[in-house]
Amino acid sequence: MSEELAVQTEGRQKTQVVDFSAYVKSVTPFVEGLKKWSSGIPLVLLFFAVWEALPRLGIIDPLFLPAFSTTIQTLFDLALSGKLLLHVLVSLQRAAAGFGLALLFAVPLGFLMGWYNKFERYTDLFVQSLRNVSTFALLPIFLLLLGLGESSKIAIIFYGASWQLLMNTISGVKSVDPIYIKAAKSMGVSDWELFKKVILPASIPSIVIGARLGAKIALMVVIAAEMIGAKSGLGFFIQNAQFNFMVPEMYAGILTLAILGLMVNYLLVWFEKKTTSWKGEIGSSILG
Amino acid sequence: MDIIVAEKIHKKFKLKQGQQVNNNGVISDEIEVLHGFDLKIKKGEFLVLVGPSGSGKSVFLDLVGGLSSPTSGVVYLDDKPVEAPSAKTGYVFQQYALFPWRSALSNIEFGLETRGVPKEERVKIGRELLSLFGLSDFEDRFPYQLSGGMQQRVAIARALATKPEVLLMDEPFAALDAQTREILQNELIRIWEGTDTTVIFVTHSIDEAVFLADRVAVVTARPGRIKDIIEIDLPRPRNGDIRSSSEFAANRHKVWGALKAEVNKAQQDWKLAPVFSE
User: Fold this and answer.
1) Do the bridges between strand B198-202 and strand B30-42 make them parallel or antiparallel, or are there none, so unpaired?
2) Per-residue pLDDT tens for B162-215?
3) How far is residue B125's CA from residue B121's CA, in Å, rounded to a whole number?
4) Is the pLDDT of residue A233 over 90?
5) Choosing among A175, A179, A187, which should be mutated to test the B contact, i.e. which has the most B CBs within 10 A?
6) Sequence ranges of the domains in chain B
7) Which among A185, A197, A277 is the nearest to B85, CB-wise?
8) B114:A188 CB<8 A
C-alpha cells in the first residue's frame, strides 16, 4: 500500500517537473528578451523628463513645446474620442495597400532578375535609374498624374517600398549557396522543384529583411504623402494641427507615429524570427 | 560485371577572362583537369580514388553523377551514357550540403519527394535510416542544431534514401575531427557491407582509402588519369581493429608508393606557380 503510494507520488512529481521545465523553456526566451528590452527604458524616461522640464522651467516657450504631461493628456483625449484611431487606421490601410502591391510586384521581379542573368542584363539599367530617384521628389508627379485620391498615395507608397524588396530578393537569389543547388540536382529535381524547394526557402531570410525595410519606408512615405495632399490620415492630422496652431495635438500625433513605428518594427522582427528560425539564434533577443 | 565504365575522358575548364595557366611552357586560357581518364568499376564494389589536389577526382564524380559533362569521352552507367543526374546515383558532399531550412528527417525525404514517394512512405524510410545511424532522437532538429558528424550522417542517409545503385562520396569525412572520422568510417563500412551498393569514394587520406576500399585507384597529378589500381586484400567484414594490423600497413605502403611521385609532382607545380604568374 505505502509502496504504491510512493510510486504514485513519484509519478506525479515527475509529471510536474516535466511540465514545469517545458513551461520555463517556452517562457524563458520571452522573459530574457523583456529584460534586455527593459534596459532601454531609462534613456527614454530621461528624454521624457527633459521634455517635461524644458517648458516648465521656461527654457522653451510652452506654446511651441507643451510639456510631456500636456502632450500625453492630449493624446489620451484624442484616443478616447476615437478621432486619432480613425486617422491611424486610414494611414495603416494606405501603407498596407502600397506595401502589399510592392510585395506582389517586387518579389517575383526579383526572382526573375536574380535567376535569369539575361533578364537582369536587359532590365538592370532601367531599374537602377528608377531606384535612385528619391521617392519624395516624385510625389508631385504622382499627384499630377493620379490626382488627390487614394490611388496617388497608394502608388507612391508602392513605389517607395518596392526597391528595397526588389534588391533584397535579387541578392537573396544570387547568394544561394551553389552546393544546395548541386545537392538538389544530384537528387534529380526539376527546375520548378529547384525553385520551390531550394531557391525560394534559401532566399527567404534576405527577402524578409527587405520586407522589413520596405514596410518602414511605406510607413514613412504614407505620412509624407498625407502631408501634401490628403484629408485624412496621421500625416494629414499632424500637418493640420500644425497649420491651425494646435501644438499639443501636433506633438500627440508625432508621439503616436513613434509608437506606431515601434509596434510595426517589433511585429516585423517577430515575423523575421518566425520565418528564419532554422538559422538559429545569432545573439539578439525576441524583441529585437 | 562493370556498372560504370569511363572511356577516354577529357575534361577542360575555361578560365575566367584574363586568367591563364602554363601547361609545360604552353600558355593557355583553358585548364585540362582530366586527360585520357579510363576506369571500370564493378557492380557492388567499394572503389576509392586517391590523388593529389587538383587531379580531377571530384570532377570525375560530377561526371558520373551527371552534374557536368566531359569535353570528350563517355561515362557509361549500366551501359547507358550519363547525360543528366540519374535516379541510380546518390551524392554525398564534403560540406554536407544539408538544406538548413529542413529538419533532419525532412532532409532525408528530399530525394524521395522528387520521386513522388507518398509522405507516409517517406517518413518510414527516413526514420529507418535515422535509426540506422543512431539519430532517431534528432529527426526534428535543424542542421544548425547538429554536430558536423551528425550532419554528415544525415547527409549520407539522405543519399541512401533513394536506394541508389551507385553512391558518390566526395571527401565526405574531410571536415570532421579524427575521432569522428574513424567512427563514421566504421559506420559506413558496417552499413555498406550489408548492401550491394557500389561506392565511389574520394579521399586524401591513405588510411581511410585502405580501410574502406576493395580497390584503390591512384590518380596522377593534373591533368588526371588513372596511374595504378591497387587491390586491398584485407578480409571483410572489417572493423576498426584492422587498422593496427601488419597487412593494413603493407597495403598502406603499396598505395603510398604509387601516390608519392604524383604528390611530389603536384607540389612542384604549386611551387612553380608564383614563377609563372610573374
Assistant:
1) unpaired
2) 999 999 999 999 989 999 999 999 999 999 998 899 999 999 999 999 999 999
3) 6
4) yes
5) A187
6) 2-73+82-88+165-277, 101-163
7) A185
8) yes
Give the one of A184, A188, A278 whose C-beta lies nearest to B101's C-beta.
A278
Asked if residue B198 lies in contact with residue B167, where contact means CB atoms within 8 angstroms, the answer is yes
Low-confidence ranges of chain B (pLDDT < 50): 274-278
Domains of chain A: 82-279 (1.10.3720.10)
User: Is there a contact between A187 and B111 if contact means CB atoms under 8 Å apart?
Assistant: yes
| CATH 3.40.50.2300 correct for B2-73+82-88+165-277 | no
Main-chain phi, psi angles of B230, to 5 degrees: -110, 125
Rounded Cα distance between B270 and A173, Å, is 35
Residue B268 near chain A (CB below 8 Å): no
- For residues A210 and A285, give the distance between their C-alpha atoms in angstroms, rounded to a whole number: 20
* pLDDT number for residue B264: 85
Going by C-beta distance under 8 Å and a sequence separation of 6 or more, which residues neighbour residue B205?
B174
Nearest CA in chain B to A193: B114
- Distance (Å, whole) CA B205 – CA B252: 10
pTM: 0.81
Q: Is A201 close to B99, i.e. CB distance below 8 A? A: yes
Pick from A4, A210, A206: nearest CA to A99: A210
Chain B residues in contact with A202 (beta carbon < 8 A): 99, 101
> Whole-angstrom Cα distance, residue B92 to residue A196?
22
CB A165, CB A207: distance < 8 Å: yes
Question: Quick one: average pLDDT of A223-235?
Answer: 89
